[in-house]
Amino acid sequence: MAARAIGTSTIAFGPVSLPVKIYSTGESSRKVSFNMIWKERGVRVRQQYIDPADGAVVPKEEIVKGYEFAKDQYVLFTKEELEVVEAPKSDEIEIASFVPHETVGRLYFNKAYYLGPDKGGARAYRLLSAALRKTERVAIAKHATRGKQYIVMIRPHEEGLLLEQLYYAEEIRSFGEVPLEEGDVNELELGLAIQLIDQAASEGFDPAQFRDEVLEKTLELIQKKVDGQEITAAPAEESKTKIIDLMAALRASIESDEGERKPATRAGKKTGATSADKKSTRKKAASG
User: Fold this and answer.
1) Residue 145: what pLDDT?
2) Contact 161/155 with Cβ under 8 angstroms?
3) How far apart, in whole angstroms, are the C-alpha atoms of residue 114 and residue 9?
4) Residue 70's pLDDT is what?
5) Domain boundaries, the chain
6) Top-level CATH class of 7-26+87-170?
């Protein structure tokens, strides 16, 4: 089934205007939602707006939006005024510059959307995609929609284009805000850590090997309730986050991983015989 567009826009670069359709890159319907139910009657309850002064229920039609410009002081807006305040001058995607793709740090990536050509835009769409791919650059643009202006990046993706919504510089927190304790890294620990990484290394990221196990378990438990079964909590597992000896933990992890990967060993190894023991045995046999 063909994807359904969630919006339309126009990419403007130089004298070219490219009409596009915007598509979601993923599905958000996998989240399990629970409703608020009145236990006594088994019916779903609705939220209400309450006057904090006397507890009176405020009718929904009497609710308007306001902006708090001072403590407990609000300026009110009509629906028509909000449309003027929130509506962007244009929903056009206005390209500001073309930059090398590697200069855009992943820290700035927020959301991604597929772009497809709208009616009459197929040739310009293909042209922009090919030009970006050939020059190994991405387009940085401004996009105003839903009452806010965003900075976006347009880059080639497979046979078409991808739009990635970026954070503004002031929206990014500095890593300097993260508290870090002092700690030295010695060569032995580093070597063991690298060995552990090498043992679990793969050629590349394969998202197909991962499943939402929490969602699957949640749906399984919900089905049990639907079938009339009781849900009981499983015994809590002991926390594994406490590390007493880093070296011991690294060695144990490596040995555990090696044990899982290696085939069955010979009987001599199972009894814990060392190489020194084997040499001694061979000498005794030769002298005998």
Assistant:
1) 82
2) yes
3) 12
4) 93
5) 7-26+87-170
6) mainly beta
Average pLDDT across each block of 10 residues of the chain; the chain has 288 residues. List them in order. 86 87 80 89 92 91 92 91 74 92 94 94 93 96 86 95 95 90 87 87 86 84 87 70 64 72 47 44 43
The DSSP secondary structure of 222-286, one letter per residue, reads HHHHHTT----PPPPPPP----S-HHHHHHHHHHHHHHHHS-PPPHHHHTT--HHHHHHHHHHHH
Residues for the chain: how many in total?
288
**How do beta strands 93-100 and 7-13 pair?**
parallel
**Helices 246-261 and 187-199, packing angle to 10 deg:** 30
Let me know if 237 is exposed, middle or buried by CB neighbors in 10 A (0-12, 13-18, 19+): exposed
